[in-house]
Amino acid sequence: YEYHNIDGRFEFHKNKCIILTSFVNKERQSMYLKRVSKWVNSGIYIYLVDSNNTGFDLISPNYNQFLFDQTKEDYYKYHKEDSTHLEIKSILKIVNHFSLTEKYDYIYKITCKYYFDNYKILDISENVSGNDLIFQKSHNKKYQNSELVGFKSDKIVNILNFILKRDIIFEEGLGIIKNQNYKFKNLNAIKLTDRVKRGDGSILNYL
Questions:
Q1: Cα dihedral sign for 160, 166, 167, 168?
Q2: Does the pLDDT value for residue 93 go beyond 60?
Q3: d(CA 191, CA 117)
């Protein structure tokens, strides 16, 4: 666990990082930049993976990005309509590229369009340490929402590959995982700082 303070702005927590998954295009670029900038200002180690090979000209000691064009990947033609497959592949790429499992105890995945001021809820306190997975509150009997998921670092690759091989949506895969021999915790509801329109047009206020 490493602590630094740079200009009083950053508090780096070596026991966790956040992967922000994105597909940055002209329509979303401004929105994504605002979210990423806020996350960087949290002082948490932030890793952006952008599958549209765009990213941002952000320079900060706690910010890294991995950019690639998913349409050039071998798997794309078979899975171009499968958002779960594409997102999981991008997560695995950035985990591997930056050797994240060797650097952090926990790795959070957050969909890039979401930001919340109450990021202290992500601290690896006694409340959550020892769990293999940390989930947002939203779930039902079959599905566990996947906008925010925390993984113990030594479990993330196996869990993501488990879901990939079953060719099911992320939320269903996490729901199955909850019934396996994994320890997990669902966080309390997290109020989003900005109202966000989802793919189906509904507005999401809480994770």
A1: negative
A2: yes
A3: 8
